[in-house]
Write a structure and sequence with these properties.
Distance between the termini: 71 Å
Structural class: alpha/beta
Strand order of the largest sheet: 5-6-7-10-12-11
Shape: globular
CATH superfamily: Metallo-dependent phosphatases
Number of domains: 1
CATH class: Alpha Beta
Helix content: 25-40%
Number of helices: 9
Number of strands: 13
């Protein structure tokens, strides 16, 4: 029996090393909260929302185009932070999001870097573990089959629609306010989306707009200037003047509502730019742009 134990011990030493220290885990997942407080004078209680956007998970799976592997590798490297690729970060975000015990989780777009089956399935697995209600508004990366062998735009949209609600405008009502999520805000607001927003305006509750693409402030140029500095002179905002996103008739109606002195909106939350900014789009409506989730950035929003 002793000989057998000695042989087993020797085998284990050969297999795992003799007295060798385990390799340290150099990965660093460090969520960094951007805290935002919104005044809601008639609120019956305090509300807590948590925002997460721009994770940019790169999961092409079997659908990936080998001819675009260099681009896939570059995008993976871009959204790797602290030694952790974005797709692995998603697994680490889930317990954090659950522990937050928020009234709602707001996923603000570009959670995926490309719309593959593996990407959608990975998101779905994470969503299934959440305990708080959530809204997932998509952006261009979520909805496009970039870097895939079959560039099937409708198929990508169908995959996203199988995951959870995927409409032009989605909403979540609370006793004291309503969240309006402008889905796919890298494109013009749809007819049905505008109709839904106008219906919610008529209901009379204070409104909070969730959009991936930020809204250009009427007078404050600091957000536009920051975008120009980050994106080679491009102003990646919805608005007038030299904004990259030029509003059509439907989006102009939404902007008119946002810019009005008596706007029904009490706040705007956005992502997209991969940096944070805080200010006002007019004298009364605050806007906060959140940094990217792949860098650990997220928002904790309090309405009270």
């Amino acid at each position: 029996m002793k000989k057998i134990l000695i042989l087993l011990t020797l085998c284990l030493l050969l297999l795992y090393g003799c007295g060798k220290e385990p390799e340290p885990d150099t990965r660093n997942f460090s969520p960094k909260a951007e805290t935002v407080e919104i005044s809601l004078p008639a609120a019956s209680r305090e509300y807590k929302l948590l925002w997460l956007s721009d994770l940019h998970m790169v999961l092409p799976g079997k659908e990936g185009d080998p001819a675009q592997q260099d681009a896939i590798d570059a995008r993976t490297a871009y959204s790797t932070s602290g030694g952790i690729p974005a797709a692995e970060q998603w697994e680490l975000w889930i317990p954090y999001l659950t522990d937050a015990k928020a009234d709602a989780l707001l996923f603000g777009g570009d959670m995926l870097d490309l719309c593959s089956t593996e990407g959608v399935d990975t998101l779905s697995e994470g969503f299934a573990k959440l305990e708080s209600p959530y809204i997932y508004l998509r952006a261009d990366h979520d909805l496009l089959p970039t870097y895939l062998k079959d560039y099937d735009v409708q198929g990508a949209w169908d995959k996203q629609s199988s995951l959870c609600k995927n409409e032009g405008v989605m909403s979540m009502a609370f006793d004291d306010f309503t969240l309006i999520a402008w889905n796919n805000s890298t494109s013009e607001l749809t007819d049905s989306g505008l109709e839904r927003i106008l219906q919610l305006v008529d209901e009379g509750k204070p409104l909070v707009l969730l959009t991936h693409v930020p809204i250009a402030p009427l007078e404050d140029e600091s957000l536009a200037e920051a975008s120009r500095a980050a994106f080679d002179g491009r102003v990646l905002l919805w608005g007038y003047g030299d904004c990259e996103y030029v509003p059509g008739p439907n989006t102009r109606q939404l902007l008119d509502l946002l810019y009005a002195e008596d706007s029904p909106f009490i706040a705007v939350f956005a992502g997209h730019l991969h940096f944070s900014w805080d200010g006002y789009i007019n004298k009364n409506v605050p806007e906060h742009v959140f940094g990217p989730a792949f860098a650990g950035d997220h928002g904790i929003i309090t309405l009270k």
